[in-house]
């Protein structure tokens, strides 16, 4: 027992929700169900039933035209695509969209009483204000960030995923939110965004940090990337939002990185320790994950939040790629000024 109480937003409906391509929808659903079985066996965890959001809640971060489009296709009796061929729609999906976005609002509400809240089905960071994309019909992370900022909170985001969180960067690029994004990057890998030279503008100047790791980078490169958490400590947010997407695992179906569950456990441990030092609340998401290592990686992350170390897989290393990430991270430290003059 760690003594750290963790709240997990959970609905049995989560087992059946997936907006992914039909070829991987079953794998996506399986990792959510498997995670639930794993996490149910540990102590110091409470399960929180989410309340659906309203249509008007989503208008806070999305255009009415997009929401009406999702509502319209939700009434159809067949499966199709909301975008160019990634994000599916299916009968009744709008109710699932409201449940997903409501999970974020539920997490914010429950964070009054809990240090850490985790949403296993969440972290849909690709959707923009007007467009669904990348298995993301809407952007629940943007809703959470927007709502916290409206409450006057100081917010930092750590977005770890195989793919750059373009939808978040687009909406908050000029907002006073510290954004650290760790992902696979070669200039064209989906979604094609994540240029490390983009540091923010306006109120968000020098608050945007894209750590694009080389394709195939391993645990050692990830550890280098996590050195940037020092910026969060300097920023001193009241809320730390974490997208802990596990599709960077070496056995993921959308293979791009070579991480193991060790990396996600390390992320959880570092986030938990950091939040305790600065007195910040943590709301985190399960993000993407489409392989046999997904559930273990999610479980390893939440165990890390609880100060429990998990070392079930052999560490992956690539010295050349680690050196590249180290150089990139070092350059970010040299330019960090986000919030230091606020």
UniProtKB/TrEMBL annotation:
It comes from the Archaea. GO terms for biological process: epigenetic regulation of gene expression. Residues 29-293 form the Histone deacetylase domain. InterPro entries: HDACs, His_deacetylse_dom, His_deacetylse_dom_sf, Ureohydrolase_dom_sf. One of its GO terms (molecular function) is histone deacetylase activity. It holds the Pfam family Hist_deacetyl. This is Histone deacetylase superfamily protein. It comes from Metallosphaera cuprina (strain Ar-4). The lineage of its organism: Archaea, Thermoproteota, Thermoprotei, Sulfolobales, Sulfolobaceae.
């Amino acid at each position: 027992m760690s003594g750290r109480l963790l709240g997990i937003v959970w609905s049995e409906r989560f087992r059946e929700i997936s907006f992914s391509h039909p070829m991987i929808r079953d794998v996506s659903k399986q990792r959510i169900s498997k995670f639930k079985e794993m996490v149910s066996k540990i102590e110091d965890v409470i399960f929180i039933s989410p309340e659906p959001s309203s249509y008007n809640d989503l208008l806070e971060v999305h255009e009415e035209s997009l929401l009406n489009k999702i509502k319209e296709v939700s009434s159809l009796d067949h499966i199709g695509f909301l975008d160019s061929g990634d994000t599916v729609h299916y009968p009744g999906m709008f109710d699932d969209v409201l449940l997903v976005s409501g999970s974020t609002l539920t997490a914010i509400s429950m964070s009054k009483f809990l240090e850490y809240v985790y949403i296993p089905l969440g972290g849909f960071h690709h959707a923009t204000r007007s467009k669904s994309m990348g298995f993301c019909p809407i952007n629940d992370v943007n809703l959470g960030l927007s709502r916290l900022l409206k409450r006057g909170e100081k917010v930092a985001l750590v977005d770890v995923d195989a793919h750059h969180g373009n939808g978040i960067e687009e909406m908050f690029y000029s907002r006073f939110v510290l954004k650290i994004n760790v992902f696979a990057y070669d200039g064209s890998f989906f979604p094609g965004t994540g240029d490390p030279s983009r540091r923010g503008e306006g109120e968000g100047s020098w608050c945007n940090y894209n750590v694009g790791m080389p394709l195939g980078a391993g645990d050692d490169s990830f550890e280098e990337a996590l050195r940037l958490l020092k910026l969060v400590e300097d920023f001193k947010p009241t809320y730390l939002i974490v997208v802990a997407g596990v599709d960077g695992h070496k056995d993921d179906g959308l293979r791009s990185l070579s991480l193991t569950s060790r990396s996600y456990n390390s992320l959880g441990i570092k986030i938990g320790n950091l939040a305790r030092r600065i007195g910040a609340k943590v709301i985190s998401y399960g993000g993407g994950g489409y392989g046999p290592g997904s559930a273990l990686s999610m479980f390893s992350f939440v165990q890390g939040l609880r100060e429990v170390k998990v070392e079930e897989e052999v560490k992956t290393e690539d010295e050349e790629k680690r050196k590249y990430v180290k150089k990139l991270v070092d350059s970010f430290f040299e330019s960090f000024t986000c919030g230091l003059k606020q």
